[in-house]
Write a structure and sequence with these properties.
The protein has about 425 residues and is an alpha+beta fold. It contains 15 helices and 16 strands. Helix content is about 40%, strand content about 20%. Strands 1-5-6-11-10-9-7-8 form an 8-stranded mixed sheet. Strands 13-12-14-15-16 form a 5-stranded mixed sheet, sandwiched between helices. The protein has a 3-stranded antiparallel sheet with strand order 2-4-3. Helix 1 packs antiparallel against helix 5 and helix 5 runs parallel beside helix 9. The longest helix has 20 residues. The radius of gyration is 28 Å and the shape is elongated. The relative contact order is 0.12.
Length: about 425
Protein backbone atom coordinates (compact mmCIF):
# COMPACT_ATOMS: atom_id res chain seq x y z
CA UNK A 1 0.00 0.00 0.00
CA UNK A 2 1.32 3.46 -0.87
CA UNK A 3 2.23 5.75 2.01
CA UNK A 4 -0.51 8.21 2.90
CA UNK A 5 0.30 11.81 1.92
CA UNK A 6 -0.59 14.31 4.62
CA UNK A 7 -0.85 18.10 4.69
CA UNK A 8 2.30 20.11 5.29
CA UNK A 9 2.87 20.84 8.98
CA UNK A 10 1.23 24.10 9.94
CA UNK A 11 -1.04 24.14 6.87
CA UNK A 12 -4.51 22.85 7.58
CA UNK A 13 -7.72 21.96 5.78
CA UNK A 14 -10.96 23.85 6.36
CA UNK A 15 -13.60 21.13 6.15
CA UNK A 16 -17.21 21.56 4.97
CA UNK A 17 -18.59 21.48 8.53
CA UNK A 18 -16.22 24.35 9.44
CA UNK A 19 -16.65 26.48 6.35
CA UNK A 20 -20.09 27.85 7.28
CA UNK A 21 -18.53 29.61 10.27
CA UNK A 22 -15.71 30.91 8.07
CA UNK A 23 -18.23 32.21 5.54
CA UNK A 24 -20.20 33.90 8.34
CA UNK A 25 -17.06 35.68 9.61
CA UNK A 26 -15.94 36.69 6.12
CA UNK A 27 -19.39 37.97 5.11
CA UNK A 28 -19.74 39.97 8.34
CA UNK A 29 -16.35 41.64 7.93
CA UNK A 30 -16.93 42.26 4.22
CA UNK A 31 -20.24 43.95 4.99
CA UNK A 32 -18.63 46.35 7.47
CA UNK A 33 -15.80 47.19 5.05
CA UNK A 34 -18.27 47.99 2.28
CA UNK A 35 -20.32 50.13 4.66
CA UNK A 36 -17.24 52.29 5.27
CA UNK A 37 -16.51 52.75 1.57
CA UNK A 38 -13.65 50.27 1.11
CA UNK A 39 -13.13 48.49 -2.23
CA UNK A 40 -11.55 45.06 -2.66
CA UNK A 41 -8.09 44.59 -4.17
CA UNK A 42 -6.65 41.17 -5.04
CA UNK A 43 -2.88 40.84 -5.24
CA UNK A 44 -0.66 37.84 -6.08
CA UNK A 45 0.34 35.37 -3.41
CA UNK A 46 3.90 35.44 -4.81
CA UNK A 47 5.95 38.64 -4.87
CA UNK A 48 9.60 39.47 -5.41
CA UNK A 49 11.55 38.91 -2.21
CA UNK A 50 12.94 42.44 -2.40
CA UNK A 51 9.47 43.84 -1.76
CA UNK A 52 9.36 42.40 1.75
CA UNK A 53 13.03 42.95 2.54
CA UNK A 54 12.65 46.66 1.75
CA UNK A 55 9.29 47.16 3.45
CA UNK A 56 9.21 44.88 6.49
CA UNK A 57 12.94 45.30 7.24
CA UNK A 58 15.84 42.94 6.64
CA UNK A 59 16.56 42.50 10.35
CA UNK A 60 13.01 41.59 11.38
CA UNK A 61 12.13 38.04 12.42
CA UNK A 62 9.80 37.73 9.44
CA UNK A 63 12.50 38.39 6.85
CA UNK A 64 15.33 36.67 8.73
CA UNK A 65 13.52 33.50 9.85
CA UNK A 66 9.94 33.13 8.65
CA UNK A 67 9.58 33.79 4.92
CA UNK A 68 9.04 31.04 2.36
CA UNK A 69 11.59 32.15 -0.25
CA UNK A 70 12.93 30.36 -3.32
CA UNK A 71 14.56 31.03 -6.69
CA UNK A 72 12.37 30.35 -9.70
CA UNK A 73 13.59 28.93 -13.01
CA UNK A 74 14.72 32.36 -14.16
CA UNK A 75 16.84 32.80 -11.06
CA UNK A 76 14.51 35.44 -9.54
CA UNK A 77 14.07 35.32 -5.77
CA UNK A 78 10.35 35.00 -4.97
CA UNK A 79 8.51 34.86 -1.66
CA UNK A 80 5.08 33.68 -0.57
CA UNK A 81 3.59 36.80 0.97
CA UNK A 82 3.96 36.93 4.78
CA UNK A 83 1.65 39.97 4.90
CA UNK A 84 -0.15 42.08 2.31
CA UNK A 85 0.36 45.77 3.08
CA UNK A 86 3.54 45.74 0.99
CA UNK A 87 1.69 44.00 -1.85
CA UNK A 88 -1.08 46.64 -1.77
CA UNK A 89 1.52 49.41 -1.92
CA UNK A 90 3.33 47.72 -4.80
CA UNK A 91 0.06 47.29 -6.70
CA UNK A 92 -0.96 50.88 -5.99
CA UNK A 93 2.34 52.29 -7.28
CA UNK A 94 2.42 50.02 -10.32
CA UNK A 95 -1.16 50.81 -11.33
CA UNK A 96 -1.17 54.54 -10.56
CA UNK A 97 -3.68 54.35 -7.70
CA UNK A 98 -1.92 56.34 -5.00
CA UNK A 99 -0.38 59.70 -5.83
CA UNK A 100 -2.71 62.64 -5.08
CA UNK A 101 -5.58 60.21 -4.56
CA UNK A 102 -7.47 58.81 -1.60
CA UNK A 103 -7.92 55.05 -1.72
CA UNK A 104 -9.71 52.81 0.75
CA UNK A 105 -8.78 49.22 -0.08
CA UNK A 106 -9.41 45.86 1.53
CA UNK A 107 -8.15 42.34 0.81
CA UNK A 108 -8.62 38.79 1.95
CA UNK A 109 -6.46 35.72 1.44
CA UNK A 110 -3.75 33.36 2.66
CA UNK A 111 -0.39 34.49 4.07
CA UNK A 112 2.65 32.34 4.81
CA UNK A 113 5.21 32.34 7.62
CA UNK A 114 7.49 29.51 8.72
CA UNK A 115 6.71 29.64 12.44
CA UNK A 116 6.31 26.96 15.09
CA UNK A 117 2.69 25.85 14.66
CA UNK A 118 0.39 26.14 17.66
CA UNK A 119 -3.20 27.10 18.36
CA UNK A 120 -3.90 30.38 16.56
CA UNK A 121 -0.59 30.34 14.69
CA UNK A 122 -0.17 28.50 11.42
CA UNK A 123 2.30 28.49 8.56
CA UNK A 124 -0.49 29.16 6.11
CA UNK A 125 -2.99 31.51 7.71
CA UNK A 126 -5.68 33.84 6.41
CA UNK A 127 -6.13 37.56 6.87
CA UNK A 128 -8.59 40.29 6.07
CA UNK A 129 -6.92 43.68 5.92
CA UNK A 130 -7.80 47.29 5.17
CA UNK A 131 -5.58 50.14 3.95
CA UNK A 132 -6.20 53.88 3.48
CA UNK A 133 -3.84 55.92 1.30
CA UNK A 134 -3.65 59.68 0.86
CA UNK A 135 -4.81 61.03 4.25
CA UNK A 136 -2.58 62.21 7.10
CA UNK A 137 -4.88 63.12 9.98
CA UNK A 138 -5.75 61.16 13.10
CA UNK A 139 -9.37 61.00 11.91
CA UNK A 140 -8.63 58.12 9.50
CA UNK A 141 -6.64 56.31 12.20
CA UNK A 142 -9.71 56.66 14.42
CA UNK A 143 -12.03 55.55 11.62
CA UNK A 144 -10.15 52.27 11.28
CA UNK A 145 -10.34 51.66 15.01
CA UNK A 146 -14.07 52.44 15.03
CA UNK A 147 -14.58 50.18 12.01
CA UNK A 148 -12.77 47.28 13.65
CA UNK A 149 -14.77 47.84 16.87
CA UNK A 150 -17.96 47.56 14.80
CA UNK A 151 -16.70 44.26 13.39
CA UNK A 152 -16.32 42.84 16.90
CA UNK A 153 -19.84 43.94 17.82
CA UNK A 154 -21.34 42.33 14.75
CA UNK A 155 -19.40 39.12 15.39
CA UNK A 156 -20.53 39.13 19.03
CA UNK A 157 -17.02 39.17 20.53
CA UNK A 158 -16.69 42.84 21.55
CA UNK A 159 -16.69 41.95 25.26
CA UNK A 160 -13.58 39.73 24.99
CA UNK A 161 -11.26 41.96 22.99
CA UNK A 162 -9.36 45.00 24.27
CA UNK A 163 -7.77 47.86 22.36
CA UNK A 164 -4.13 48.80 22.97
CA UNK A 165 -2.62 51.87 21.32
CA UNK A 166 0.70 53.68 21.20
CA UNK A 167 2.57 56.29 19.16
CA UNK A 168 5.90 55.52 17.52
CA UNK A 169 6.42 59.12 16.42
CA UNK A 170 8.39 59.94 13.29
CA UNK A 171 11.43 58.12 11.96
CA UNK A 172 13.64 60.95 13.22
CA UNK A 173 12.16 60.80 16.72
CA UNK A 174 12.56 57.03 16.82
CA UNK A 175 16.22 57.35 15.81
CA UNK A 176 16.93 59.57 18.82
CA UNK A 177 14.96 57.20 21.06
CA UNK A 178 16.74 54.19 19.62
CA UNK A 179 20.12 55.65 20.64
CA UNK A 180 18.91 56.25 24.21
CA UNK A 181 17.35 52.79 24.40
CA UNK A 182 20.53 51.13 23.11
CA UNK A 183 22.62 52.85 25.78
CA UNK A 184 20.20 51.67 28.47
CA UNK A 185 20.08 48.07 27.19
CA UNK A 186 23.85 47.84 26.81
CA UNK A 187 24.11 48.62 30.50
CA UNK A 188 21.91 45.55 31.13
CA UNK A 189 23.31 43.28 28.45
CA UNK A 190 24.00 40.44 30.89
CA UNK A 191 20.25 39.84 31.40
CA UNK A 192 19.32 39.98 27.71
CA UNK A 193 18.51 36.71 25.98
CA UNK A 194 20.16 35.60 22.75
CA UNK A 195 17.52 37.14 20.44
CA UNK A 196 17.66 40.45 22.27
CA UNK A 197 21.43 40.64 22.11
CA UNK A 198 21.22 40.09 18.37
CA UNK A 199 18.59 42.81 18.04
CA UNK A 200 20.56 45.24 20.19
CA UNK A 201 22.59 46.46 17.23
CA UNK A 202 20.01 45.91 14.51
CA UNK A 203 16.50 46.58 15.86
CA UNK A 204 16.53 47.41 19.59
CA UNK A 205 12.87 48.54 19.67
CA UNK A 206 11.84 44.94 19.05
CA UNK A 207 13.42 43.99 22.39
CA UNK A 208 10.56 45.86 24.08
CA UNK A 209 8.15 43.34 22.55
CA UNK A 210 9.97 40.34 24.07
CA UNK A 211 7.73 37.80 25.82
CA UNK A 212 10.62 36.39 27.88
CA UNK A 213 9.55 36.72 31.55
CA UNK A 214 13.21 36.87 32.66
CA UNK A 215 13.53 40.23 30.89
CA UNK A 216 10.33 41.76 32.20
CA UNK A 217 12.05 43.90 34.84
CA UNK A 218 14.71 45.35 32.55
CA UNK A 219 12.10 46.14 29.87
CA UNK A 220 9.88 47.85 32.44
CA UNK A 221 12.77 50.12 33.40
CA UNK A 222 13.62 51.17 29.84
CA UNK A 223 13.13 54.79 28.77
CA UNK A 224 9.73 55.47 27.21
CA UNK A 225 9.28 56.51 23.59
CA UNK A 226 6.59 59.02 24.60
CA UNK A 227 9.29 61.21 26.16
CA UNK A 228 10.98 61.58 22.77
CA UNK A 229 7.93 62.61 20.72
CA UNK A 230 7.75 66.06 19.16
CA UNK A 231 4.78 68.42 19.25
CA UNK A 232 3.30 67.23 15.94
CA UNK A 233 3.41 63.57 16.97
CA UNK A 234 1.84 64.38 20.33
CA UNK A 235 -0.97 66.35 18.66
CA UNK A 236 -1.63 63.48 16.26
CA UNK A 237 -1.90 60.99 19.13
CA UNK A 238 -4.07 63.32 21.22
CA UNK A 239 -6.34 63.83 18.20
CA UNK A 240 -6.73 60.08 17.90
CA UNK A 241 -7.54 59.52 21.56
CA UNK A 242 -10.04 62.41 21.58
CA UNK A 243 -11.94 60.91 18.64
CA UNK A 244 -12.11 57.34 19.91
CA UNK A 245 -13.08 58.50 23.42
CA UNK A 246 -15.91 60.55 21.93
CA UNK A 247 -17.10 57.40 20.16
CA UNK A 248 -17.11 55.45 23.43
CA UNK A 249 -14.18 53.17 22.55
CA UNK A 250 -12.28 51.95 25.62
CA UNK A 251 -8.53 51.60 25.20
CA UNK A 252 -5.25 51.17 27.05
CA UNK A 253 -2.04 52.98 26.13
CA UNK A 254 0.72 50.36 25.92
CA UNK A 255 4.08 52.15 25.79
CA UNK A 256 5.81 48.88 24.85
CA UNK A 257 3.65 48.32 21.78
CA UNK A 258 6.08 48.70 18.87
CA UNK A 259 4.79 46.20 16.24
CA UNK A 260 7.06 43.81 14.39
CA UNK A 261 7.35 45.60 11.06
CA UNK A 262 9.79 48.42 10.38
CA UNK A 263 7.48 50.60 8.29
CA UNK A 264 5.17 51.85 11.07
CA UNK A 265 5.16 55.44 12.39
CA UNK A 266 2.93 57.47 14.72
CA UNK A 267 -0.23 55.47 15.50
CA UNK A 268 0.03 51.74 16.17
CA UNK A 269 -2.76 49.63 17.66
CA UNK A 270 -3.70 46.06 18.51
CA UNK A 271 -6.91 44.36 19.54
CA UNK A 272 -5.99 41.63 22.04
CA UNK A 273 -7.79 38.91 23.96
CA UNK A 274 -7.01 36.58 26.84
CA UNK A 275 -9.15 33.79 25.36
CA UNK A 276 -6.53 32.27 23.03
CA UNK A 277 -3.52 31.67 25.25
CA UNK A 278 -0.22 33.02 23.96
CA UNK A 279 -1.69 34.10 20.61
CA UNK A 280 -3.62 37.02 22.04
CA UNK A 281 -3.50 39.50 19.15
CA UNK A 282 -6.52 39.25 16.84
CA UNK A 283 -6.04 42.48 14.87
CA UNK A 284 -3.08 44.84 14.50
CA UNK A 285 -2.17 47.86 12.45
CA UNK A 286 -1.04 51.44 12.35
CA UNK A 287 0.28 54.29 10.23
CA UNK A 288 3.07 53.90 7.63
CA UNK A 289 3.53 57.30 6.00
CA UNK A 290 6.97 56.56 4.52
CA UNK A 291 6.32 53.14 3.01
CA UNK A 292 5.10 54.20 -0.45
CA UNK A 293 8.19 56.35 -1.01
CA UNK A 294 10.39 53.58 0.42
CA UNK A 295 9.07 51.24 -2.28
CA UNK A 296 9.65 53.66 -5.14
CA UNK A 297 6.46 55.72 -5.21
CA UNK A 298 5.85 59.38 -4.56
CA UNK A 299 5.35 60.38 -0.91
CA UNK A 300 1.90 59.13 0.12
CA UNK A 301 0.61 58.64 3.67
CA UNK A 302 -1.01 55.36 4.62
CA UNK A 303 -2.64 53.57 7.53
CA UNK A 304 -4.03 50.06 7.76
CA UNK A 305 -4.65 46.91 9.75
CA UNK A 306 -4.98 43.16 9.30
CA UNK A 307 -6.76 40.50 11.31
CA UNK A 308 -6.23 36.75 11.45
CA UNK A 309 -9.32 34.79 10.43
CA UNK A 310 -8.21 31.62 12.21
CA UNK A 311 -8.11 33.51 15.50
CA UNK A 312 -11.50 35.14 14.94
CA UNK A 313 -13.04 31.77 14.12
CA UNK A 314 -11.44 30.29 17.25
CA UNK A 315 -12.85 33.12 19.39
CA UNK A 316 -16.36 32.53 18.10
CA UNK A 317 -15.98 28.79 18.69
CA UNK A 318 -14.77 29.53 22.24
CA UNK A 319 -17.99 31.45 22.80
CA UNK A 320 -19.88 28.47 21.36
CA UNK A 321 -21.93 30.84 19.25
CA UNK A 322 -24.27 29.02 16.90
CA UNK A 323 -24.04 30.01 13.25
CA UNK A 324 -26.65 28.87 10.77
CA UNK A 325 -25.23 26.48 8.19
CA UNK A 326 -25.34 28.60 5.07
CA UNK A 327 -24.56 25.57 2.93
CA UNK A 328 -27.31 23.19 4.05
CA UNK A 329 -29.98 22.66 1.39
CA UNK A 330 -33.35 24.30 1.78
CA UNK A 331 -34.99 21.36 0.06
CA UNK A 332 -34.19 17.64 -0.30
CA UNK A 333 -35.98 15.93 -3.20
CA UNK A 334 -36.94 12.28 -2.62
CA UNK A 335 -37.94 10.06 -5.57
CA UNK A 336 -39.69 6.68 -5.46
CA UNK A 337 -38.49 5.32 -8.81
CA UNK A 338 -36.22 5.98 -11.77
CA UNK A 339 -39.11 7.68 -13.61
CA UNK A 340 -39.78 9.87 -10.59
CA UNK A 341 -36.08 10.72 -10.31
CA UNK A 342 -35.96 11.83 -13.96
CA UNK A 343 -38.96 14.06 -13.41
CA UNK A 344 -37.48 15.25 -10.12
CA UNK A 345 -34.30 16.49 -11.82
CA UNK A 346 -36.39 18.55 -14.24
CA UNK A 347 -38.61 19.85 -11.43
CA UNK A 348 -35.53 20.91 -9.44
CA UNK A 349 -34.18 22.85 -12.42
CA UNK A 350 -37.51 24.69 -12.85
CA UNK A 351 -37.49 25.58 -9.17
CA UNK A 352 -33.90 26.91 -9.37
CA UNK A 353 -34.99 29.10 -12.29
CA UNK A 354 -38.03 30.39 -10.42
CA UNK A 355 -36.32 30.79 -7.01
CA UNK A 356 -32.75 32.08 -7.38
CA UNK A 357 -30.86 31.32 -4.19
CA UNK A 358 -32.85 28.25 -3.24
CA UNK A 359 -30.63 25.27 -2.42
CA UNK A 360 -32.06 21.98 -3.69
CA UNK A 361 -30.40 18.61 -3.16
CA UNK A 362 -31.73 15.77 -5.31
CA UNK A 363 -31.26 12.31 -3.84
CA UNK A 364 -28.98 10.12 -5.93
CA UNK A 365 -27.92 6.51 -5.57
CA UNK A 366 -31.30 4.83 -5.15
CA UNK A 367 -32.69 3.39 -1.92
CA UNK A 368 -36.07 3.16 -0.29
CA UNK A 369 -38.10 5.95 1.24
CA UNK A 370 -36.83 5.26 4.78
CA UNK A 371 -33.18 5.52 3.69
CA UNK A 372 -33.87 8.66 1.65
CA UNK A 373 -35.69 10.36 4.53
CA UNK A 374 -32.79 9.53 6.85
CA UNK A 375 -30.34 11.20 4.45
CA UNK A 376 -32.69 14.15 4.00
CA UNK A 377 -32.74 14.68 7.75
CA UNK A 378 -28.93 14.44 8.01
CA UNK A 379 -28.53 16.97 5.19
CA UNK A 380 -30.01 19.74 7.35
CA UNK A 381 -32.71 20.55 4.80
CA UNK A 382 -35.84 22.30 6.07
CA UNK A 383 -38.26 20.65 3.63
CA UNK A 384 -38.51 17.32 1.88
CA UNK A 385 -40.16 17.11 -1.55
CA UNK A 386 -41.60 13.70 -2.29
CA UNK A 387 -42.22 12.33 -5.77
CA UNK A 388 -43.87 8.94 -5.55
CA UNK A 389 -45.63 7.09 -8.33
CA UNK A 390 -48.99 8.58 -7.31
CA UNK A 391 -47.63 12.17 -7.29
CA UNK A 392 -45.97 11.50 -10.64
CA UNK A 393 -49.24 10.38 -12.19
CA UNK A 394 -51.15 13.39 -10.76
CA UNK A 395 -48.52 16.06 -11.53
CA UNK A 396 -48.26 16.84 -7.84
CA UNK A 397 -45.54 16.72 -5.15
CA UNK A 398 -45.58 16.00 -1.43
CA UNK A 399 -44.05 18.52 1.00
CA UNK A 400 -42.83 17.36 4.42
CA UNK A 401 -41.50 19.71 7.13
CA UNK A 402 -38.24 18.08 8.28
CA UNK A 403 -37.60 20.50 11.15
CA UNK A 404 -41.04 21.13 12.64
CA UNK A 405 -44.36 19.54 13.32
CA UNK A 406 -46.38 20.66 10.32
CA UNK A 407 -48.23 17.83 8.62
CA UNK A 408 -47.27 16.65 5.15
CA UNK A 409 -49.29 18.19 2.31
CA UNK A 410 -49.59 17.49 -1.40
CA UNK A 411 -49.77 20.35 -3.92
CA UNK A 412 -49.80 20.64 -7.73
CA UNK A 413 -46.32 21.10 -9.19
CA UNK A 414 -47.56 24.31 -10.84
CA UNK A 415 -48.10 25.86 -7.39
CA UNK A 416 -44.90 24.55 -5.82
CA UNK A 417 -42.61 27.55 -6.51
CA UNK A 418 -45.00 30.03 -4.92
CA UNK A 419 -45.52 27.81 -1.88
CA UNK A 420 -41.76 27.32 -1.37
CA UNK A 421 -41.17 31.04 -1.66
CA UNK A 422 -43.67 31.64 1.11
CA UNK A 423 -42.35 28.84 3.33
CA UNK A 424 -38.64 29.55 2.89
CA UNK A 425 -38.26 33.27 2.35
CA UNK A 426 -41.38 35.03 3.59
CA UNK A 427 -41.95 33.32 6.90
Amino acid sequence: MSKEIQAIRGMHDILPEQSSLWQHVEATLRGVLLAYGYREIRTPILERTELFARSIGEVTDIVEKEMYTFDDRNGDSLTLRPENTAGCVRAGIENGLLYNQVQRLWYIGPMFRHERPQKGRYRQFHQIGAEIFGLTGPDVDAEQILMSARMWRELGIDDIVELEINSLGTAEERAVYRDALTVYLQAHVTVLDEDSRRRLTSNPLRILDSKNPAMREVIAGAPGLADFLGDASRRHFEGLTTLIEAAGIRYRINPRLVRGLDYYCNTVFEWVTDQLGAQGTVCAGGRYDGLVEQLGGRPTPGVGFAMGLERLVALIEERRQSVEDGQAPHVYLISASEAAQRQGFLLAERLRDALPGVRILCHCGGGGFKNQFRKADRSGARLGLILGDEELAQGSVGIKDLRGGERQVTVPQTELAALLRARLFES
